[in-house]
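pasting for ref
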Amino acid sequence: ITKLTEDKEKLTYTLNKTEKKLRESEKRSTSKLGRCQKRYYRMKSKYKAKLQRIKPQKMPAESCSASDSAVSDEEEEPVTVVPTFSKGHYNAKVRECCMELLAQNVGIHNVESCINAVCDFVGCKTGPLPSKSTVANIMVEAQAISHVQIADSVPVHSTNT
């Protein structure tokens, strides 16, 4: 009987300890979730305000002239297609564009959408664009090129002893 009571005490102690750990981890999870939710709503309101500033102002109807309607009736210019890929490789301009975007702190996941947005704005279309993993490889290329440029710019001093 004493052994059973000892086992019962051990199990009760272990159970209480486990429940305490569970409550503590639950508190941490809820507080972390709360912080993340607050951060999300702060960022959302911040970007919503920025978006409101960026949105174009609507023009009054009377400011539109008859020449504007004549322009819209005309045929649009043919869309220029920019070649990006040939012989299994992206051309140098695409690689250079990706390197420049990465140098300007555009994320790897956003390079393709950034190029598409600019092309839409300019009124051209592109061929296939590099995937995220290819952009990551291009970033490694850019780092290697920068290391070579740094090595070339540092003068080599010889020491005679």
